[in-house]
Amino acid sequence: MKQFRLKCGPVVFEPTNASRFLEGNPLAMPQATCAVCVTFQIKPEFFEQFLTVVKQQAENSKTLEPWCHQFDVSLSPEAPNTVLLYETYDDRAAFTSKHRTTEHFAKFAATIADWVESKQIGVWDIQST
Fold first, then answer.
1. Which of 25, 90, 108, 110 is a good FRET partner for 14, with 20 to 30 A between their CA atoms?
2. If we measure between CA atoms, which residue out of 68, 67, 85 comes closest to residue 76?
3. Stated pTM of the model
C-alpha cells in the first residue's frame, strides 16, 4: 500500500492522523452525500450555445455555492447533442433547497428552456468516496 504524507500548515496528514484531524474540525469541508445526474438532449441548432451556457452554469455553481463539490459537463461521441451533468452536493437539501433556488440557476433554466428536447434527472445517495 502506498503511503502518503501531506503537510498543510502545522499539520501533517498521514493515514493514521488525517481522519482524526478532520473529525469534528469545523474548518474541514463536509463530504458530499448527494449526487445528481442530468441528461439533456439538445436541439441541434442550439447545441453550441447550450455548451457555452452550461459550462458557465458549472463554473457558477462551483464558485458561488459552497455546498456544491463537483459539477462536470460531459459529452458522448456516440450520442450527438446529448449532454450529461454530474454534480455532487453536501446533501439532498443543498441540491433542492439551495442550488435550485439560486439566481444563476434560474437564469440558466430560463435561457435553455427552448433549446432542450428532453431532460432526465436522477438524484442519488453517495455510499462511498
1. 90
2. 85
3. 0.77
